[in-house]
Design brief:
By secondary structure, this protein is an alpha+beta fold. It is built from 18 helices and 14 strands.
């Protein structure tokens, strides 16, 4: 049997603790690997072979061309939180669940969500006070949770927002801890504080989700939302169990809430540091909307607003890393990725590659004009993954981000508190580690109701 020739990478003697580096500073570690070793990097995580792929063609191969040879690299913590939802499932089961969920994200249904998004954003906007300082990251979490609950599950979850938000924060922090990599074993050891806190937070989340499921089963009413579709869906006469519905609901709750909230928090931060971009945003909002609320039709008209969001997703992608496990030996770029090895794709790293984004750390929405987009390889940008695992809620997320930004920025400017410590924390999503303390400044008087 021929020996496998591995691509360049750090010597085991220098990076014996690569796993520790990946856990303690994953953004820095992956960025350094790409900088020092190029488009295909080999390293070891203990006895495990691992590869970082940075070239858009290689990323496309994993996510699209050869996707059936790459399975999600699930951890026990991921399974405990999301079960067999869309992010974790694979094969025929994944295709079935995706098909059942797809109708909730058709264009006509997405259009019906726009009013809900604007209503929630307007209520938040009207509560804001001049000169008030708040953690904007927390506020974005609360408003997007309310939107996710109403549009996906037809539930007014703002009343649950504080409890759910607190539980989600605990889960996100504990999710990244090495001690929870074997959470199923830890559950058998309830005296361990990390296991106990994780279980408590998860139990709180499950209680809310199962309560909604039980209410729907009792009523038997089809409200036209995702949870109704999941409860009514059948295959060969068999309906989903409560556990299957719970897994999809938990997955979509996180995907439709956590990711959008973090994207918006980073967008506000970037705007506060970029007066020229902020001025151009305000000019577009004044020209397109004036004093009226945004609508679904405005989503296509707020071109520069969407460019701002796209650039924020480049610099601070909520989904900052994708991991896959190789099913069978796979040839790529002149090397072989052996079966069972891990493959990492990092949106954070690739999105900051100077080959595709000159002066990559600069916030520049003009990168998203049509000519600029067409000049780049498609998978130089993949904030929503790709292939059959591309995020079902991509349009939902984009529209939510644009309409929330337009509604709030129409009347307010946000300024970072001087001396605030801003650092990206790569947990389940890429969040501001120390929050986003910002002060509100009114830029225009709200319209007077008739």
């Amino acid at each position: 049997m021929a020996l496998i020739r591995f691509p360049p990478g750090p010597k085991p003697g220098l990076f014996r603790n690569a796993e520790t580096h990946l856990q303690r500073d994953p953004l820095g570690f992956l960025t350094e690997l790409a900088r020092d070793y190029g488009d295909i990097v080999h390293f070891r995580l203990g006895r495990q072979h691992a590869f970082l792929l940075n070239h858009p063609d290689h990323i496309k191969d994993v996510l699209v061309t050869s996707e059936t040879n790459f399975a999600p690299a699930r951890t026990s913590t991921t399974r405990a939180l999301l079960g067999d939802g869309l992010l974790n499932s694979e094969g025929a089961f994944h295709r079935r669940q995706r098909a059942l969920s797809q109708p909730a994200f058709h264009r006509r249904r997405i259009a019906s969500y726009a009013d809900v998004m604007v209503q929630h954003a307007t209520r938040l906007r009207d509560r804001w006070q001049e000169g008030e300082t708040v953690d904007l990251s927390r506020e974005m979490m609360q408003v997007t949770l309310g939107i996710a609950g109403k549009t996906l599950f037809d539930a007014e979850m703002e009343s649950d927002a504080e409890e759910v938000g607190d539980a989600l924060r605990q889960v996100r922090v504990l999710f990244a801890r090495p001690v929870l990599r074997h959470v199923r074993k830890l559950r058998a050891l309830p005296f361990l504080p990390a296991a106990r806190r994780f279980q408590r937070a998860l139990t709180r989340l499950d209680a809310i989700i199962y309560r909604i499921i039980a209410d729907r089963r009792r009523s038997g009413v089809d409200r036209g939302d995702l949870i109704s579709m999941l409860l009514l869906a059948q295959e060969d006469g068999a309906a989903m169990t409560d556990v299957q519905v719970r897994d999809e609901v938990m997955t979509l709750l996180l995907a439709g809430h956590d990711t959008t909230a973090n994207a918006l928090a980073w967008t506000w931060y970037l705007l506060s540091q970029s007066p020229a971009v902020e001025a151009k945003l305000h000019a577009e909002l004044d020209a397109v909307l004036g004093d009226r609320p945004a609508t679904f039709e405005d989503f296509g008209r707020l071109v520069y607003t969407e460019m701002i969001l796209a650039e924020a997703l480049r610099l601070y992608p909520p989904g900052w890393r994708i991991s896959r496990r190789v099913i069978a030996d796979h040839a790529l770029g002149g090397y072989t990725l052996p079966a069972g090895s891990l493959v990492f794709l990092s949106q954070y790293v690739t999105h900051r590659d100077a080959r595709y984004y000159p002066d990559p750390s600069r916030f520049d929405p003009e990168r998203w004009t049509a000519p600029a987009r067409e000049a780049r390889p498609p998978f130089a940008y993949f904030p929503f993954s790709g292939g059959t695992r591309r995020c079902l809620g991509e349009q939902f997320a984009r529209m939510s981000g644009v309409l929330l930004l337009a509604t709030l920025a129409g009347q307010w400017k946000l300024r970072l508190v001087p001396g605030a410590r801003i650092e990206a924390d790569p947990l389940f999503t890429l969040r501001p580690k120390f929050g986003m303390p910002m002060t509100r400044q009114r830029r225009r008087t709200p319209p007077v109701s008739a």
